[in-house]
Here is the input.
Amino acid sequence: QVQLEESGGGLVQAGGSLRLSCAASGRTFGRTFSSYAMAWFRQAPGKEREFVASISWSGATTYYADSVKGRFTFSRDNDKNTVYLQMNNLKPEDTAVYYCAASLFHAYDIFHGTGDMKYWGKGTLVTVSS
Here is the structure.
């Protein structure tokens, strides 16, 4: 019943921008979306999944991996049960499948790798050409 669905991925040239969205649905999840911290992870071909960014339940606090800091912006709209990842100045090394995830831990815990994610989306592919 609980679903996270990512969208907005695609092919873009280096230096370009994309905005990913992740919409939450499901009876239980939809009622308590604002209770969850949210996060984006990514997995490049042949590599392990890595943390990209996390956001607090209110959206007031965000954390970013050093590799994306200053280029990516994470936001959320609790009225729409949706989070967004604005990605600017994209680089070929940003090529990956991007996953959104929800957690009952704090965004700070997710950032430090001590917060488990409760729900995961299926991912959306971002390809950045050089």
Notes: The helical segments are 27-31, 107-111.
